[in-house]
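User: Could you write out the 3D structure of this protein bound to zinc ion? I've included everything you need below.
Assistant: Certainly. Input first, then the structure.
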Amino acid sequence: MSVVNSFPWQQAQWNQLSTAYSQECLPHGLLFCGSRGVGKKGFAFALAQMVLCEHSMESSQACGQCKSCQLFTAHNHPDLKLTEPDDEHKPIKVNQVREIIDFMNLMPHTSSHRVVIIDQAQQLNHNAANSLLKSLEEPPANSLLILITHRPSALLGTIRSRCRQVLFPAVETALASSWLADQVPGDVNLLLNLSHGGPLLARELAASDYLQLRQQCFEDWLGLNSNNMLSIANKWVKCGLENVFVMLDSWIMDLIRFKAANDDRLIRNQDLSSQLINLVKHLDMSKLMRLQQQLLERQSQVQQNINANLLAEDIMIRWLECKQVA
Ligand SMILES: [Zn+2]
């Protein structure tokens, strides 16, 4: 079988778009919105395969057999193009959009359509977005442009308004855990908690060394003092400070939630809850809130290429201040 399927929680979106396709009224521009890890990109590829397949018009499903489906499966389809930033924080630039426009203006090679998927579309820089706008205003015949984002508000309003928005809401917990339990071993509820309910993100975490890394960083954080600060800062920078800051944010938010309501069910990092509860006894709410705010500021500075060691040390000093008994 070589058909990319949508995920079980995407049935409504699939029905909506496959019906539009079979009635030949699929819009030229689609904007997929929804939080990370819910499978928007997978869905875009499933839709692309269907649109490119030679035999999908009646069944609204890719056949998995035709020449187009074979090229698609071999990641070598001449009528499909994926554009995304080099990494999540880099912009999508105007020359990348020019390539998209050239691509869309060519006649389809094998299929009846040309399909472009732009992932992380919130990273389109200003010139790139303006350039893209023209092809949304006058789309070439038989072209389909799919934009994907978890932050639709970061897109130009004029781009949003020229696309049909398709929402991918958070996946229902029971469905997400039963799907994930079939995919990976381990504590699926913890993995889902750590990925804010996104089953695909949770699967990615399970397949990586994330949980070990998190455990190490948590121990560093608990054992931090002015003597080991420099070596821990070095270590965190090597691990990728952005990821470490996301973990810190999640622990601090757990401390704040627990401090506010005294209810351990509100703790997302359930496996660390006894240590977090122990820690929170000695912490002051207003200091914690200030620390969380300072962390947010440092997180945005990491993306601006400010010296990572200094940012790590700064947040460590503030954490030690926060722990000092008033
Ligand atoms: Zn096919």
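The pocket of zinc ion is lined by residues 53-55, 62-63, 65-66, 68-69 (CB under 6 Å).
User: Perfect, thank you.
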